[in-house]
Amino acid sequence: MTAFGPFVARARAAGTLVVQPRMGMSEPGRMRAGLLATKDAAATTVGTLTLDSYTRTGEVAAARRAVAEGVPLNGYPITSYPSGVTRSVLHGVADDSFPVQVRHGSARPEKIFSALLAAGLHATEGGPVSYCLPYSRTPLREAVDSWRRCCELLAASRTDGAEPHLETFGGCMMGQLCPPGLLIALSVLEGLFFRRHGLRSISLSYAQQASTRQDEEAVTALQAIAAELLPDVDRHVVIYTYMGVYPLSPGGAQLLLDEAARLAVRTGAARLIVKTTAEAYRIPTVGENVRALESAAAVAAGERRSPPGATPDTGIRAEARGLIDAVLDLHPDIGRALVLAFAKGYLDVPYCLHPDNAGRARSRLDHDGRLHWSDPGSMPIGRSGRTPAAPALSSSELLGALSYVQRSYDRRAFRTSVADGVSVAR
Amino acid sequence: MERGKAGKAGLNVVVTTMVSDSHTWNLVFLQLLLEELGHRVTNLGPCVPDEVLAAECRRRRPDLIVLSSVNGHGYNDGLRVVAGLRACPELRGTPIVIGGKLGIAGAEDGARARALLAAGFDAVFEEAASVDAFRSYVRSLPAGVLL
Ligand code: B12
């Protein structure tokens, strides 16, 4: 029996950041080896079963066929193996000193929730919005119904030894170019949805964006709003290392991970999900994951939490709170409120193609990497009078915005290596 | 519009991914790129089931079908999907191409591309560096298709 929330709470009380990989491979033996390597890493870790895309989209037959034919998948197909196989993957690995979470990306995760419970696990993640809009063509209303049932199923697994844990994925819409106010609002709204449907141990996500200053303000705002609206649950904040187009150079990838680890510690987040130097290219190896976990833990150990008031308030907290309140006012049932909010465009994720997303809002990156609304669409966000209507982006401008972080960190790594080279030459 | 009648008004292009892939920035990018080249794009969005893809293509009779996948299942899914599309008599001669990150282990020696071509694709464009090649391919199309 593993308890995810209490494990993270103990590490936080001890002043240690918990680090976690995104790791999943199709073959059970390799999956087990990956979990063991995560457990043995020189860091305070929790384990991950990241599921493959067939399993995420409910294509169980395709996943089974791939397993039978030996086609390598991009994750672990939990619903294609009998629960005994997954239990043997976890046996002697998952325990109170090493909780394991299932990470998926499914708009209708009933089978996944049943499979993880059958394997003896109680921790997973997602949400009715964040695993629908960027991950499927499922109507939002259906995803909300499915996630309600799944929350109830997970909550019902509560026993003396295990408090089920659910993490919101709302802090990472589309991986990039979503301004922080909306990320925070969605993360908190999904947290409220989870609590409404029985969960008592919840983590709230926030994905690193393109400006560290802006991210620090955003996570501080997320902590404050979560304390106001979710005071009565076991709760922590989890930071995702950058989820957009990743640096190409190993040095750039490392600097970006270092920055995420510092962001997590400074803002009082309890857990960090790492990315590896393979991110821009392919599924990482176990070794690459272990190196990312260990280096992030080492950077975190050298950083301190910022004192209260250290981050100037540019209005992110008010924007997020305004969005949350506007959604909650739409309907007493939070699931219905979320569906109505997207139908009215009160929530509108930039560049998201899902048919239930209004698609009127547009974001832009400042010269220093801060994200802003160039057009908030119908969201209840003040349009600053000076902002002219957003001109449509060209394909190369879009690529430019998507690869801003990649470029900046690759350049930084190149400069560092040149500087090192010079000092060595001397 | 009937195939081959696109002429100066540009091609009718279907941009799509396959059933297991939810990535969409690639689709948004390809749509903008093709529109800038003067073509009309129908973007089918994420996780397109095989039946939906075939039905949309049969209905629209596009001048070009562009499949994009980056989740690592593109090779496996592409082999199946192109066979299904080529089995539709209306699509037997339609240019169909695929690109993106098609396997889970990064770049390889070209065996993947050869197998995809043999399965029925007209061209394979792996990774970002292939965008220029794609542009020239598309430029070469109208004449090829029109005559
Ligand atoms: C953003 C992102 C996401 C977002 C996507 C949001 C959205 N709706 O689009 C989120 C967080 C939701 C996500 C989810 C997942 N992702 Co993802 N994601 C990325 C990331 C970081 C950037 C992709 C991106 O937006 N690029 C911007 C676009 C414009 O570029 P592009 O897609 O690379 O396409 C370029 C070229 O490939 C080329 N191209 C693409 N298609 C075509 C087609 C033609 C014809 C041509 C000519 C060219 C071409 O042109 C583009 C411009 O240069 C990449 C890693 C990276 N690159 O840094 C991983 C990555 C693509 N994801 C990956 C995976 C596996 C997943 C998941 C399955 C989760 C998992 N197991 O880790 C899920 C997807 C679930 C599913 N059902 O498929 C892997 C794929 C592994 C592989 N192929 O070996 C990557 C490489 C990360 C990794 N190293 O593990 N992801």
Question: What would you say this structure looks like, in words?
Answer:
The complex is a heterodimer of chains A (426) and B (147). Chain A has 426 residues and is an alpha/beta fold. Helices cover 45% and strands 11% of the residues of chain A. Chain A contains 15 helices and ten strands. Chain A has helices spanning 4-13, 28-40, 53-56, 60-69, 83-90, 110-118, 140-155, 180-196, 212-229, 250-266, 286-301, 316-328, 334-344, 395-402, 404-425; strands at residues 18-20, 47-50, 100-103, 123-126, 165-168, 201-207, 234-240, 271-273, 362-365, 371-375. In chain A, the strands form three sheets. Chain A has a six-stranded parallel sheet. In chain A, strands 2-3 form a two-stranded parallel sheet. A two-stranded antiparallel sheet of chain A has the order 9-10. In chain A, α8 (180-196) crosses α12 (316-328) and α9 (212-229) packs parallel to α12. The longest helix of chain A has 22 residues, at 404-425. Chain A starts with a helix and ends with a helix. In chain A, 56% of the residues are buried. With 147 residues, chain B is an alpha/beta fold. Chain B is built from five helices and five strands; from the N terminus they run βαβαβαβαβα. Chain B has helices spanning 25-36, 50-60, 74-86, 111-119, 131-146, and strands at 12-16, 40-43, 64-69, 96-100, 123-126. Chain B has a five-stranded parallel sheet, with helices on both faces. The radius of gyration of chain B is 14 Å and the shape is globular. The interface between A and B is medium-sized, with 35 and 27 residues. Bound molecules: cobalamin.
